[in-house]
Design the sequence.
C-alpha cells in the first residue's frame, strides 16, 4: 500500500468487523515523525489472538480475514525506521499505534485521508468515526477534524442517502485541508507565511 | 433462480371473491409458460384493503393489482411476469403526485397504507401462514427463544407491565397485571387461553390475524405459559371461521414438528402445548367466564367474579385469557423492548389498534393505526371518506357494547379513555360508519336485537331488561312511540348496566344510551312527529308528492291500490297519509320524479 | 428444535428467500474492502462509483457500500451489483474507469457488462 491512509482504512475495517461502536483515528505529526493511533471499542483480542495477529506473514496470500493488516502496517512503519504497538483486551477494545519516520526513503505519504474516512463511513452503519489530524504548517500546529455522529443519524432515518453522506464526509474533510492550504499559499489574500 | 414472488390474498374476504381459483390458475399458467423455476406464487393472509379484493402483489416491483379475476391471469403472466410490462388497467387507481399525475404503484404509496402502522398485522399479507419457515424468517420464535434462555418468568411479566400493553378485546385491562395475578396464584396446574371467538358483528380483526399469522398467537401463548407457570393452552375459536381453524391446525402441527410446542422446548425443560376448541355460535362465549364454562363442556354462561379467572378459572385453576390481537403484539415487545412499544400511542394507551372499517366508507377493510390517531384521519384519510358524496353522521365503535361517535367528536384521538369519555368504548375494533341515510334509532335497535338474541338468559336484568328495551324501540320505530318512552329507556338502561351479571348485559344498553345522547332529536321525531328523519323506518316513511314537480297527469292516482291520491288534472296531486299503505306503486309510475319517500 | 442456533439457520436461509418481498432497496453496489481489496485499489473504485452515481442523479435509488474480503485476492477489487429483482452480478479486477462503464451500461441501462464479470 502506498498511502498511510490506506493502512488506516484497513486497520479501521478490522475495528468495524470487531463490532466497534466508536472508532477514533488520531494522527499526530511533528517535523520528523507521523504517529497514527487507531482506537476502537470492539470486542478486542485475547493474548493468543493478538500474538497471531502480530506475527502473520504480510506477504503470504492467504484466505479472507487472515489478518494481514497489522503485519502489513508493521512492515510499512518499520521500513521507515519506525515501529508499531498493539494494545488489546478482550471485551474492551483495541488500540493500534504506528510511527513513521518522515526522512526515510521508504516513507509513504498520508494520502487521501478524506476518502478513507468516507469509505469507512459508507460501510459501517452502526459505527461513529472521529478523525483528527494535527500537523505543523506555516509555523503553527493545524488541526483537521471530523465526527460522523450526526450524519450517522440522518442516514439511519433515511433523510440523507448514503451516497450523499459519503460525499459530505469526504468533501468536508477535503475542504478543511484546502482551507489550510489556501492560508499557507496566501490564496485567500491572508497574511504572508513562510 | 426465483426472480419474482406473486402474493395473493388468501383471507376469507378475498377467498370468497375467488382468490383461490386465481392462485390455482396462476400456477397452471406459470407452469405452462415454463416459468416454474423463476416465479413463486405465495398465498398470504389479509392485506387489509378488502374493498378492492381479490388483491395480488408482484415483487420485487411491489405492483399492487386489485379486483383481479381468473380471466386476467393469462394477461398478467404474459405481459407482466414474462415481458416485464405492468398491466396498468388492474393497478390500484390512485394518483400519487398531483403535479405529475403519476399513479401510485406500490402498497406503501397509497393513502390507505401511508398512515398505518402494522404491528399486530405485520406479517399479514407478507408471509404464507401455512409455512412455519416464513414466520421464522420474520424473527418468528426468536422471542420465545429469548424468553426461555435469557429471562426469568417475573422478568417477562415486568416487561409486559412496563410495555403498557392493554387487552385488545375491548376491556383494555393491562395485560401484565393479568399475568402477574395468575403468576402469583399458587397451583401446580395453570392454563393459558386465547379468546378467538370474535363475536362483534362487523369485526374481523382477529380473523385476519388467525388466518394470516397464526404462529404469532401460538408463540405468544407459549411465552405467556412460561411467564405464569402454565404448560397447557387452549385456543377457543369460533366455528364460523373455517379458514382460521384450518390455519391454526396446520400451524400447531408444524410448531409441534419443530419442537416449538410440546416437551422440552429449546432444550430448556419448558413444556407447553396447545389445543383447539371450536365455538358453537354463541356471542356470549366471547365473555371470558362463559368461554371457560364452554371449554369445560357446559352451556356457555358467565360466572360471578370474583373469583377472577387468574385465581380460579378453567377447571378451577388459575387461568389467563387473552385476545388474539393482544397476543399478536407480544413477540415483538419481547424482541424490541418495552420502550419501543411505549414510543407508539398515547399516555395511557400504548401501541396500535386494529380496526375493521365497515358501513358507509369507501375503503372497507382492515387498518392498524397508532393509538391517538383521530377518527377523522381513519375515516377520511385512510378510509377514503364517505361514498357517493354523502355526509358523515356517526361512527359506531365497540359493536353491540359500544356507542356512536357523532361528527362533533371526529377529532377525538382514539384511545381507551378518550372514547369512554365521549360515551363509547374502544371495543374489539369494529368501526361501522354511518351517513345521513342511516337512522340512529334503527341502528340502536339493530344492536339491541343482536344482544337480546344472544343473551344467555342466566340473569334477570339482561334476560328481561334488554327485551323490554327492545319492545320500546320496536314501538318507537313502528310509529307507536309514546311520551315517556325515552325516560323509560334511560331508566331501564341504567339499571341493567348496574345489575347484569356479565359484560354482555352490562354493555347492551350502550348503543341506546349513546344514540340518545347525541341524536335525541331523532328519537323525538319518531315519537312525537311519527317521522323518521333519515327515511329508514318503513312504518314511518311518508310518501309525498312534490308540488313543484307534479304535472297533474293523474297516472299515480290511477295506480294507487287504496285510492289515497287525489287531485285534478294538470294540478299538483296530494297523498292522504291516513290511507297510504306505502306500497310505492305511485313512485314507480311517476315519470317526473315528483314522488319520493321520506 | 434443540437449540436457538437451529432456529437462526432457518431464519438466515429464509430471509434471503423472502427479501424479494420487501419491495425496496433498488440497487446496491458493494465494493469488497478487505486488505486485498484495499491493496488493489478498492477505495478509489468505491470513490469512483459514488461520484458516478451522484453525477447521474441516482443517489436516492442506488446505495454504494462495502463489505469484507471475499478471499479471491487475485481478483480484487471485486464489486457486486445487487438488484431488487434478486439478480447479483460480480465484477472482478475493477478500476475507477471501469466503474463508469458499469454505471452507464448496467446501473442505468440494465445490462450487465459481461467483459468485467468473473
Sequence:
Amino acid at each position: 500500500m502506498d498511502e498511510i491512509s490506506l493502512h488506516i482504512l484497513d486497520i479501521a475495517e478490522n475495528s468495524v468487523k470487531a463490532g466497534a461502536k466508536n472508532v477514533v483515528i488520531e494522527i499526530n505529526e511533528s517535523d520528523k515523525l507521523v504517529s497514527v493511533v487507531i482506537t476502537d471499542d470492539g470486542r478486542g483480542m485475547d493474548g493468543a489472538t493478538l500474538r497471531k495477529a502480530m506475527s502473520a506473514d504480510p506477504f503470504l496470500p492467504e484466505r479472507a480475514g487472515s489478518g494481514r493488516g497489522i503485519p502489513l502496517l508493521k512492515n510499512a512503519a518499520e521500513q521507515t525506521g519506525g515501529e508499531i504497538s498493539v494494545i488489546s483486551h478482550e471485551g474492551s477494545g483495541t488500540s493500534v499505534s504506528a510511527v513513521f519516520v518522515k526522512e526515510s526513503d521508504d516513507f509513504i505519504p498520508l494520502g487521501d485521508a478524506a476518502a478513507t474516512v468516507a469509505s469507512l463511513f459508507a460501510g459501517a452503519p452502526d459505527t461513529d468515526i472521529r478523525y483528527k489530524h494535527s500537523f505543523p504548517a506555516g509555523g503553527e500546529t493545524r488541526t483537521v477534524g471530523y465526527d460522523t455522529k450526526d450524519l450517522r443519524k440522518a442516514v439511519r432515518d433515511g433523510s440523507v442517502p448514503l451516497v450523499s453522506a459519503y460525499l459530505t464526509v469526504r468533501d468536508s474533510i477535503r475542504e478543511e485541508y484546502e482551507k489550510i492550504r489556501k492560508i499557507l499559499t496566501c490564496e485567500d489574500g491572508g497574511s504572508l507565511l513562510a | 433462480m426465483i426472480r419474482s414472488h406473486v402474493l395473493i390474498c388468501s383471507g376469507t374476504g378475498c377467498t370468497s371473491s375467488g382468490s383461490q381459483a386465481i392462485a390455482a390458475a396462476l400456477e397452471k399458467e406459470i407452469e405452462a409458460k415454463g416459468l416454474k423455476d423463476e416465479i413463486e406464487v405465495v398465498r398470504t393472509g389479509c392485506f387489509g384493503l378488502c374493498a378492492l379484493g381479490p388483491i395480488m402483489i408482484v415483487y420485487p416491483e411491489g405492483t399492487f393489482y386489485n379486483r383481479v379475476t381468473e380471466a386476467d391471469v393469462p394477461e398478467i403472466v404474459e405481459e407482466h411476469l414474462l415481458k416485464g410490462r405492468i398491466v396498468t388497467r388492474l393497478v390500484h387507481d390512485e394518483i400519487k403526485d398531483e403535479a405529475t399525475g403519476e399513479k401510485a404503484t406500490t402498497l406503501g404509496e397509497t393513502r390507505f397504507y401511508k398512515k398505518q402502522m402494522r404491528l399486530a398485522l405485520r406479517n399479514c399479507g407478507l408471509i404464507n401462514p401455512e409455512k412455519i419457515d416464513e414466520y421464522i424468517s420474520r424473527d418468528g420464535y426468536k422471542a420465545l427463544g429469548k424468553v426461555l434462555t435469557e429471562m426469568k418468568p417475573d422478568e417477562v411479566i415486568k416487561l409486559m407491565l412496563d410495555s403498557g400493553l392493554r387487552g385488545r378485546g375491548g376491556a383494555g385491562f393491562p395485560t401484565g397485571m393479568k399475568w402477574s395475578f395468575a403468576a402469583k396464584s399458587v397451583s401446580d396446574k395453570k392454563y393459558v387461553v386465547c379468546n378467538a371467538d370474535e363475536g362483534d358483528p362487523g369485526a374481523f380483526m382477529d380473523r385476519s390475524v388467525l388466518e394470516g399469522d397464526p404462529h404469532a398467537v401460538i408463540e405468544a401463548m407459549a411465552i405467556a405459559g412460561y411467564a405464569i407457570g402454565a404448560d397447557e393452552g387452549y385456543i377457543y375459536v369460533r366455528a364460523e371461521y373455517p379458514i382460521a381453524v384450518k390455519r391454526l391446525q396446520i400451524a400447531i402441527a408444524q410448531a409441534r414438528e419443530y419442537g416449538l410446542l410440546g416437551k422440552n422446548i429449546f432444550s430448556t425443560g419448558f413444556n407447553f402445548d396447545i389445543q383447539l376448541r371450536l365455538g358453537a355460535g354463541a356471542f356470549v362465549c366471547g365473555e371470558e367466564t362463559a368461554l371457560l364454562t364452554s371449554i369445560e363442556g357446559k352451556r356457555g354462561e358467565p360466572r360471578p367474579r370474583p373469583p377472577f379467572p387468574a385465581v380460579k378459572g378453567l377447571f378451577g385453576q388459575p387461568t389467563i385469557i387473552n385476545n388474539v390481537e393482544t397476543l399478536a403484539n407480544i413477540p415483538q415487545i419481547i424482541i424490541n423492548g418495552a420502550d419501543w412499544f411505549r414510543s407508539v400511542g398515547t399516555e395511557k394507551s400504548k401501541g396500535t389498534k386494529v380496526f375493521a372499517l365497515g358501513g358507509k366508507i369507501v375503503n372497507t377493510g382492515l387498518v392498524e393505526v397508532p393509538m391517538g390517531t383521530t377518527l377523522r384521519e381513519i375515516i377520511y384519510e385512510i378510509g377514503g371518506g364517505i361514498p357517493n358524496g354523502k355526509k358523515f353522521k356517526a361512527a359506531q365503535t365497540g359493536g353491540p357494547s359500544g356507542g356512536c361517535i357523532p361528527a362533533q367528536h371526529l377529532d377525538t384521538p382514539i384511545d381507551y379513555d378518550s372514547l369512554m369519555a365521549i360515551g363509547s368504548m374502544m371495543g374489539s375494533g369494529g368501526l361501522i360508519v354511518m351517513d345521513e341515510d342511516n337512522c340512529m334509532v334503527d341502528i340502536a335497535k339493530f344492536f339491541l336485537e343482536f344482544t337480546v338474541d344472544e343473551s344467555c338468559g342466566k340473569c334477570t336484568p339482561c334476560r328481561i331488561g334488554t327485551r323490554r328495551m327492545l319492545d320500546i324501540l320496536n314501538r318507537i320505530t313502528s310509529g307507536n312511540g309514546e311520551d315517556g318512552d325515552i325516560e323509560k329507556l334511560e331508566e331501564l338502561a341504567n339499571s341493567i348496566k348496574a345489575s347484569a351479571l356479565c359484560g354482555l348485559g352490562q354493555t347492551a344498553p350502550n348503543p341506546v344510551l349513546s344514540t340518545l345522547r347525541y341524536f335525541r332529536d331523532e328519537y323525538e321525531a319518531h315519537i312525537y312527529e311519527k317521522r323518521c328523519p333519515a327515511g329508514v323506518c318503513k312504518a314511518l316513511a311518508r310518501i309525498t308528492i312534490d308540488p313543484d314537480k307534479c304535472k297533474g297527469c293523474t297516472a299515480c292516482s290511477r295506480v294507487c291500490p287504496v285510492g289515497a291520491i287525489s287531485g285534478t288534472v294538470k294540478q299538483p296531486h296530494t297523498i292522504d297519509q291516513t290511507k297510504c299503505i306505502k306500497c310505492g306503486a305511485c313512485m314507480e309510475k311517476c315519470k317526473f320524479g315528483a314522488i319520493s319517500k321520506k | 428444535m434443540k437449540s436457538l442456533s437451529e432456529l437462526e439457520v432457518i431464519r438466515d436461509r429464509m430471509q434471503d428467500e423472502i427479501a424479494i418481498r420487501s419491495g425496496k432497496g433498488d440497487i446496491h453496489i458493494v465494493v469488497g474492502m478487505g486488505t486485498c481489496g484495499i491493496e488493489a485499489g478498492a477505495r478509489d473504485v468505491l470513490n469512483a462509483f459514488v461520484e458516478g452515481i451522484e453525477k447521474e442523479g441516482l443517489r436516492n435509488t442506488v446505495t454504494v457500500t462495502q463489505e469484507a474480503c471475499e478471499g479471491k485476492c487475485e481478483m480484487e477489487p471485486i464489486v457486486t451489483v445487487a438488484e431488487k429483482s434478486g439478480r447479483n452480478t460480480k465484477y472482478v479486477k475493477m478500476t475507477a474507469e471501469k466503474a463508469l462503464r458499469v454505471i452507464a451500461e448496467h446501473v442505468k441501462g440494465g445490462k450487465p457488462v459481461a467483459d468485467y464479470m468473473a
